Amino acid sequence: MAEKTRMRLWFGFAAVLTVSLVLVIHGVLDGSASGILFPRPFAVAIDDLGWNQGHDEGAVNPSGPYRLGLPREMLRSDYEPLVEIAAELGIRLQGAFILAEMDRENVLRDYPTTTSAGVHWDNSENIGPDQLDVMAFVRDQAAFLEFGLHGVGHEFWPEPGVRRRAEWYNLEEDEPWPREEIAAHIEAVKAILAQYGLSEAEGHSFPESFVPGASGIHWDPEGDVSTGSMLRPEGVRFANTAFSYIKELDPPEGPNAGGFDHGLLVVNRQEYGNVWDEPASLPTVPIEDQESDLIETHWTNFLTPKGIPQARTNERWIRFFRTVQEQDDRYLAKNSEQFASQWLYRRYAEISEGPPGEVLIDNSAMPREAYEQGLLGALVLKVKLSEGKHLSRASLDGRPVGVYYEDAGFGFLELPPLDAGDHRLSYTTGDTPLPLFIDHRGTYNIYSTDIGGGHFGFQVRVYGTQDIHVRGVSEPTRISIDNGRLRLLGSRYLDDQRLLVMTLGAHDIQGETGRVNVEF
């Protein structure tokens, strides 16, 4: 028996040694010391956009709202840095908006628990052209700044002059606000958005992402009065909060925890040293020590005090994000939808590489809610590339992978949404990139690609106005889109690069989905 045990140990050691040698050889040949990498997604949520006044009234007035800690009026120029940072990185930052001071018609008089003034609400001091300028800018820059929901007034006022934390859940008494009051706050959001032409009647969806003010969310997947049960029917798909604020509700445990509440995917987030009211403040905890995939930031953190160049702060944030992209186990999620998708894959899928370039993906544990809520998009994998090398071939279950990009010394593959089961990815590296692919430089989502005789088609969700780069194609004879609210604004073909660049524009501020067909 002892001899059999020794034999089993020897063969086990030999097998491990063989696999290790194969992986080392694989690294030498293709520039990837670790083979395929399955990175965690990274994103930030930026709280408190939307205020017209920056001074923190709540700090000195026991009934006033908490704002930004900036003693000045907030203008379009305060939103521009966010767009500049995101555009440089090719990501869409999630903005969480407070809308009370955007009210141009004083409709909040009809929703008295949304402001300290109650039925006497008067927003006259804020009404002016600057509001229109800001909201037009936010709508036009939907490719780089997501219009997410934070709240109406951030807090809750059960009666005029009586402030309670916070708007979506009563953190002081550890109990939910009345369901009818939450419904009223949702209606108030719609009423203010309609003042800027962002209503359902004008072809715009309710915000898809949500961050509760002061992290006060009513977590109750089995109950009928949770925040998720109220917001998911309105179209909210993603939420993030600090679960530590609602321990009495037994939320999912762990720094990177999350789960479904009536179809709303809620994930935990953490703050890593950038205090909410501190200008030009970046996380102080190193990337490799951050446990949550999504981190907490505030608008003030991205802005500079008077007299300090904004460009300097922009560059610091850009360097921070690029450091994330350089990690083997992290990557910058393009947008909230891609973040949620990758978070789910990382939680439920298992990936292993046997022979070099042959990858098994076991997605059998993916919960049904992920499919029912339409949350599974691209699965992002990456490979470390040596100088001059590219991913030259990639196929999933025998079909070519059509979405790829390179950044920070890595080749990034975006696989189409995977059903619950086993899948096989094959790839090789070499001197030339994939023969035909979408070079994913933008913040859109690609759900499928179809390469056939004389045509190339793909299903895409576009935010704002963006260029889509298709490499390895002939000059097209016709380009068509099956959604009239997703328009082809122009195209150009660079013959020497076999590159087609299409400019697409989405009507809905929350994005438009359509199939694009390119004929040759």
Kindly summarize this structure in a few lines.
With 520 residues, the protein is α/β, with parallel strands linked by helices.
**Uncertain segments of ≥5 residues (pLDDT<50)?**
1-33
Structural class by secondary-structure content: alpha/beta
What is the number of helical segments per DSSP (H or I, 4+ residues)?
8
Mean pLDDT: 93
Distance between the termini: 69 Å
Secondary structure tally: strands: 27
Q: Shape, please?
A: globular
Question: Approximately how much beta-strand content do the residues carry?
Answer: 25-35%
Which structural traits does this protein have?
single chain; disordered N terminus; globular; alpha/beta; 520 residues; five-stranded parallel beta sheet; seven-stranded mixed beta sheet
Explain what you see.
The protein is an alpha/beta fold. It is built from 8 helices and 27 strands. The protein has helices at 2-30, 80-89, 129-140, 179-194, 227-231, 310-325, 336-348, 368-372, and strands spanning 40-49, 93-98, 145-151, 156-159, 162-164, 209-210, 238-241, 258-261, 264-268, 294-298, 330-332, 350-353, 358-362, 379-384, 390-396, 399-400, 403-407, 410-415, 422-430, 437-439, 445-452, 455-462, 465-471, 478-481, 486-494, 499-506, 512-519. A 7-stranded mixed β-sheet has the order 14-18-17-20-23-26-25. Strands 1, 2, 3, 10 and 11 form a 5-stranded parallel β-sheet that branches. Strand 17 (403-407) and strand 18 form a beta hairpin. The longest helix has 29 residues, at 2-30. It starts with a helix and ends with a strand.
